Amino acid sequence: MEAHSSGPQQSRKRRRDASNGEAEDGETAGKAPRCTMGLRSPAPFADELRPATAPYLRVTMEEAHRGTPLDRPVRVYADGIFDLFHSGHARALMQAKRLFPNTHLIVGVCSDDLTHKFKGFTVMNEDERYDAVSHCRYVDEVVRNAPWTLTPEFLAKHRIDFVAHDDIPYSSAGSDDVYKHIKDAGMFAPTQRTEGISTSDIITRIVRDYDVYARRNLQRGYTAKELNVSFINEKKYHLQERVDKVKQKVRDVEERSKEFVQKVEEKSIDLIQKWEEKSREFIGNFLQMFGPEGALTHMLKEGKGRMLQAISPRQSPSSSPTREERSPSPTFRLPFFGKTPILFRSSYMHVLNHLIHVLTVVHAP
């Protein structure tokens, strides 16, 4: 069992500069207690923790799955390069953390020298990779300068119960599987790789779209020397940038033109609808006034009847009234009929009859 400090868990403040993670001047250097820091602080580095004094007794797989006491978590170790730390790394560490009910996850990160020797050049340096892993929520402890091959002495020093890694044989350093002796010892706990994401995939995207990223960083103020870009390529990127700006302006003009045309069409449709409504209203009013059954037709018919009544001679009654019964009002006579010649009176009647005929034909239904 491991020894733990009594009393409440002490808060631990770690401030490191961007280069080597050393404590700042004036800060008291000391060992932090061996305990999980939780989610409020980065995971501590193993060389900054107080060494355990209790004897190292490994738990079996059955005991680990059954659950261990709170003061004796199952210590699981996972190692890697963790360059360009991404979700695939985080998922692998999450699986390692969830292997057992009570797990203390220790993550080993290899140094630059070891990585460049056995795997190749990295994008992030070792301090950046150490810091990235320490800020993963599933990590309880980080081992800097982790070994490429795990030795019994290393496992005993860090009191490791199980080693977590994906089950695919990892060939390196002249070995077909660097975890073979861990598997033979029954200390291997497999995890699953996340498909579709890896450091190599990210680097491939950057190499594939190198021109795009180079142009973007030139825009952000990086010099051609910092980007290792030649003078000719620098001028080419600036020219491409200007061409792209012109293309973007053309696309913006096209979009605005489309919006304008769309607005004009909408307004045209609205105007046409209003015109149709007004035209129907106008036609209805016109027909109501001038149509076959319109008000003007009725007015003309009434005028025609009154005119005919006015110009037609009154019929003689069947029996002549007596002198006392006759109306004292004078009889209606056309003007000038009494005094005008017979020829003029016949012409006047012919004109009136012709006018009445024309009005009757024009307004006939």
UniProtKB/TrEMBL annotation:
Protein name according to UniProt: choline-phosphate cytidylyltransferase
Function: Catalyzes the key rate-limiting step in the CDP-choline pathway for phosphatidylcholine biosynthesis.
Keyword Nucleotidyltransferase attributed: yes
UniProt key word Lipid metabolism: yes
Catalyzed reaction equations: phosphocholine + CTP + H(+) = CDP-choline + diphosphate
Region named Disordered: 1-46, 310-332
Similarity comment: family membership: Belongs to the cytidylyltransferase family.
Gene3D superfamilies assigned to the protein according to its UniProt record, in alphabetical order: HUPs
Key words, A-Z: Coiled coil, Lipid biosynthesis, Lipid metabolism, Nucleotidyltransferase, Phospholipid biosynthesis, Phospholipid metabolism, Transferase
Residue ranges annotated for the Cytidyltransferase-like domain, each copy included: 77-205
Residue ranges, compositional bias (Polar residues): 1-10
Coiled coil: 236-263
GO MF term set: choline-phosphate cytidylyltransferase activity; phosphatidylcholine binding
Domain of life: Eukaryota
